[in-house]
Fold this protein.
Amino acid sequence: MRIGLYPGTFDPVTNGHRDIIRRAMQLVDRLVVAIAINIDKSPLFSIEEREAMMRQMCVDLQENADCELVVTTFDNLLVDCAKVHNASLLIRGLRAVSDFEFEYQMVGMNRYLDPSLETVFLMADAGYQPIASRLVKEVSRLGGDVSEFVSPDVAQALNKKFGRG
Ligand code: ADP
């Protein structure tokens, strides 16, 4: 059984993340989506809120899929989280060149910490490439429409966070 781990902050989960999850589900028998508690990143949404939004998105993705989707949270080393879940593949999404430097360092460090864990990079569909949680939050905060980039539930949660609706 091939188990993949897709870690991220998911603050909030976007259609870009969704596309990566959908693609990763074709590669593994079980995909563990691991939400980093990441207090030092000062997330807009609490870990409970991020988890609830992710679970909601996964209900739809799980329908008729052979791959089992599991949503969890973690606050320890990524390699330890992978061990707990018996994951042998680490899934990361790649956008433009800007993601590369950070991801390159992360592969090196994770490989040092656990050489048995292989990292696989997936690219979202071209239309989802520019989507970043950081930008979605910024646009929503300033009153812009983000319904093209996130699910209706997430769009509503953002509106609520920024005192609308
Ligand atoms: P992190 O704090 O780990 O970067 P994110 O929630 O921002 O957490 O992203 C999780 C993963 O999803 C990362 O590998 C990131 O590169 C990837 N990702 C985010 N948005 C997109 C997108 N639009 N297309 C492809 N990959 C993406």
Q: What stands out?
A: Residues 35 and 51 are 7 Å apart (CA to CA). The first strand starts at residue 3 and ends at 8.
